[in-house]
Amino acid sequence: MASSRHPALAFAMAPGLEAAVFESGELARLAAVAEILDPRPLADLSEARASGILTRAEILVTGWMCPFLDAAVLARAPRLGLIAHAAGTIRFTVPPEAFTRGIRVVSAAAANAVPVAEFALAAILLANKRAFRLREIYRREARSAAFEMPWIGNRRRRVGLVGASRVGRCLIELLRPFEIEVWVTDPFLDQAEATALGVRLASLQDLLAACEVVSLHAPLLDSTRGMIGPRELALMRSGATLINTARGALVDEEALVREVASGRIDAVLDTVEPEPPTRESALYATEGIFLTPHIAGAMGAEVARLGALVVDEIERFVAGQPLRHEVRAEDLRRLA
C-alpha cells in the first residue's frame, strides 16, 4: 500500500483508552504515515460521526470496548484495508466477513502475552515454594509450616503448560534460567517442535500426574471448555498448584473448590467464569485459592506495549512490507 498519499485512519475503542495505549511518540509516528480522521475514538458506531469516518477509513485501529465490526458495519467502510487491534484476542471484535472481504487484520496479542507470562512465572515460583498455602497457615496459626514441607522449592521441579500458545511460548523462555523441567501438552505441537523449544511433550493426563505446577494457556473452544474437571483434578499430585491465566471456563470450578478445600492441591486463579464471581462464590473464601481480578494481561504502563506493536505494523502496512503479527482466517479456530 506504499503511496505518497497518507491512508485515512480512525480509532474505535473505549474513549480515553487511546491516550494510554498510544504514547505521544507513537501518535506522532502514526501521524507521519496516516491521516488521522479524528483523534477521538469511535465508541458507538451508530452515531452520526461514525458514518462519515467509516466511509473514509482505510485503517481502523481497534481496542478494548470496540463495538463488534459485523457485516453491516464493514459495509459502511468500503475502503477499509487494515484492522489493527491494539489488544489481545480479535474474537469479539472482528467477524469472518472481514477476511472474506480481503481486509487484513493484525493483533497485539504477542505484546499482551508478555505480562501474562510474567504473571504466570511469578505464580509458578511462589507456588513451588508453597507460598500461597503457607501464607494461610501463617495467618491462621501464627507459625511457619515450611519445615513440614521438605519438598518445596524450585530446584528440579516439573512445571506443566497446557497450551503452547503465545503466552505458553513466552513463559517457556522465562523459565529457562531456572532448574525447572517444562512439560507441555498441545494438540498442535509435534515432537520436533517440542524438542526445538526444549520442552517435554506429554499427554494432558501424564502432565497432570507428573508436574508440581500446572499452568493453563489454552484457548476457550468448544473442545476445551471444562477440560480440567473432576477426573483431571484427581490426577494432580498432592501439593500441586493449578494456575489459570487463560479462561475461567477451562476449569470446572465446583470440582476445583472441592479439591482445594480438601487441602490436597492449591490454585492461583486470575480468570474465572463468570467474572467477577458472584458474591456467594466459594472462590473467595476457600483456603488454598489465590484469586486475582484478571490482572495478568496488560495493565497500567504495560498497555503502551500494545500500541507500539500496532504502530510498527501500520508502518509496515503503509510501506507495503510484510506484517509480523497478522491474523489469518484459518487462525480463528484456535484463537483464545
Kindly describe this structure.
The protein is built from 13 helices and 13 strands. By secondary structure, it is an alpha/beta fold. α2 runs parallel beside α13 and α6 (109-128) packs across α8. It is elongated.
Give a brief description.
Helix content is 36%, strand content 15%. It has 336 residues and is an alpha/beta fold.
Task: Walk me through the topology.
Elements: E1 8-12, H1 17-21, H2 24-33, E2 35-36, H3 48-56, E3 59-62, H4 71-75, E4 82-85, H5 96-100, E5 104-107, H6 109-128, H7 131-141, E6 157-162, H8 166-175, E7 180-185, H9 191-197, E8 200-201, H10 204-210, E9 213-216, H11 230-235, E10 241-244, H12 253-261, E11 266-269, E12 289-291, H13 304-319, E13 326-327
Parallel strand pairs: 1-2, 1-3, 3-4, 4-5, 6-7, 6-9, 7-8, 9-10, 10-11, 11-12
Antiparallel strand pairs: 5-13
Helix pairs in contact: 2-13, 6-8
